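Reopening this one. Same input as before:
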Amino acid sequence: MNLEAIYFISQVIAAAALVASLIFVGLQVRAGMAQSRHAEQTARAQVHQEVAESYRQMALEWVRYPEMYKFMIMGAETKDMTDQQRQVFGGLFFPTMQMGENIYYQHRNGLLDDDQYETYLGHLSRLLKSPAANDWWQDRKFAFNPEYVAWIDAKLGSLSDFEPVGFYGEIESPDAPSPDTKLDASEDD
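Same output, byte for byte:
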């Protein structure tokens, strides 16, 4: 075997090694992209779960304390509230609007799909069209990020007039048994 043949064989081996390394890099990039997509899907699912959990916690508090729910509905359906009732409503409504701001930014950052976003914030913006909630928003929107405020104000401008759903006055405190009350044996079956 002469020097030229050895050189030729080494070039073939080098070319094969280059092809093999390019295939390896391609597989690594592909695996990295798949891992990145999975991480993004996981992050999206986690954000959706956190938002849903926030709503669930709020609903549980309303069930646990029906008076809170009364104030929220009163604020959504009437403008006729005393100063004290307005303060209670505002105290309950502020975290609701903070939750909306979080949803807005999660969507803007690509972590909530358009459908989820519209579902969550559609109801909130409709609620803001109510007289007391709108008064509260006009008075307190300075406490929120200007970008979120601009979005809410634009959304409010695009909605039709508010129509009350008719809940206020129908909510009564349930006579639920205390947690330590034992059920009758007949109720267990």
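So the earlier flakiness isn't reproducible anymore. For the record, The helical segments are 3-64, 66-77, 83-108, 114-128, 131-140, 146-158, 185-188.
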